[in-house]
Amino acid sequence: MKEVCIVNYTSNAAVYGIGTYLAEYVYCLNQLGYKTTIVELGTDDQKSEFYVKEDGNKRTIHFPYIFKGEIDRYNKGVCRVLRFYLEDSVNLVFHLHYWQSDSLLDSLKTHFPQSKSVYTIHYSNWSASLQGNVALLKRIIHNREKEKNKEKYGHIIENYKMEKTFLEKFDRIVCLSDDRFNLIQRLYGIKEKVWLIPNGLRKNARNMSEKQKLMMREKFHISKDEKILLFVGRIESFKGIKQIIHCLYDLISDYPAFRLVVIGNGDINGTAKKCNNVWSKVTFTGRLDKKTLYKWYQIADIALFPSFFEECSYVGIEMLMHGLKIVASDGFGVRNMFHDDRNAKVARIESLVVKSKFEKNLKRSILGLFKSDLTSTDIKNGAKESYQSKYSIEMMQEAYEELFNSL
Question: Are strands 92-96 and 3-9 parallel, antiparallel or unpaired?
């Protein structure tokens, strides 16, 4: 029987995408009957202590805080402790999810030489630096020996080398999007051991009647004539929230009866300052629990997903699962989830320098969904079909079973 040891660096950020991924992933492993060990490292709580918790077929081994400058020594200590709880075997699989795990992987291979290793790519260092501009990344890497290129993009080149060396150490690499899968194969030159497994989500979307939706809108003090634009996610620049705010200035002159609801933590103050003269049209809720969030999904008229890059967003999957009318970007990874006039209206970014083009495209796409019932119905049906055919928990479970059988 396979035993999967998941290595997770616990932190406040774990409540976002990767936290959802791990919950769904552990569910898949449980359904497959695999024994699961979760190793928690580097908690934000400096007062935490070592403990082991057993829960059926799942075990959690919690290690206390990583002190700055002691990571290599810490990782070796972790592996020595794990030898008391894990038996080295060809059926033992270590599954890692963070780039900072390099020295930990080396120690695991030393202490568990028969085991296998898997890595899932949830993010990449170049993405934020280049705002998902994969064409620019390719130019930088192809010209990495040129001095001018080294001076301007030295940190990108070094990160590329580090990531490539790190990935080559694993027995299997999981990519969450077609864009990432193609990039790893073509630019990084790693082919045989790369798997494409999009995230999956258990279906828990509730279907509200029109009467129930009206009652919920009344509860939230939203007028029945007011269109709700819904943005969900951490409020960061790469999520495209600034472009959404900017496009409101033009949108309000063509269609004034709307409200933008922004759900998530992050730079709320900085974003609110950009709402000059449209403050009354924007509501910031902060981060909400899933039950309340799903109520907003039910009553939203249009969901907005304008990210410049993503891997395989759980927010995006939730929007598809709820059969929402969606306006999305064509950013790296985003374009693999959303397809124009099939499950979304896609607003092209066009230029990372002249972002006003993207803002105009966002406005045009939003207005298109406001005014066309036929297009809206097609997109809602397409969204549900996309979730079922690509992002259901059954699809994710089946893919991981196949991967583990290949080890």
Answer: parallel
Domain that holds residue 351: 210-390
Q: Is residue 216 located within the same domain as residue 284?
A: yes
Cα 359 from Cα 365, distance rounded (Å): 10
Tokens of 276: 């000059």
Q: Are residues 317 and 296 in the same domain?
A: yes
Residues 35, 181, single domain; the answer is yes
Report the length, in residues, of the chain: 407
Same domain, 288 and 396: no
pLDDT tens for 345-369 read 999 999 888 889 999 999 999 999 9
Are 353 and 379 part of one and the same domain? Answer: yes
245 and 267 both lie in a single domain: yes
pTM of the model: 0.94
Residues 6+ apart with CB under 8 A from 185: 191, 194
Q: Which amino acid is at 344?
A: A
- Same domain, yes or no, for 215 and 354? yes
Judged by DSSP in three states, 255 sits in coil
Q: In angstroms, what CA-CA distances link 90 with 19, 93, 404?
A: 28, 8, 11
Residues forming beta bridges with residue 52, ordered by sequence position? 61
Sheet holding 345-347, edge to edge: 282-286, 258-263, 227-232, 302-305, 326-329, 345-347
Q: Where are the beta strands (DSSP E) in 131-278?
A: 172-175, 194-196, 227-232, 258-263
Q: What is the pLDDT of residues 148-182, one digit of tens each?
A: 888 999 999 999 999 999 999 999 999 999 999 99
Domain count, the chain: 2
Query: Closest Cα to residue 108, out of 123, 121, 120, 95?
Result: 95
Determine, yes or no, domain membership for 155: no
Query: Phi/psi of residue 40, each to 5°?
Result: -100, 125
DSSP letter at 380 equals H
Q: Is 187 left (phi over 0), alpha (psi -120 to 50) or beta?
A: alpha
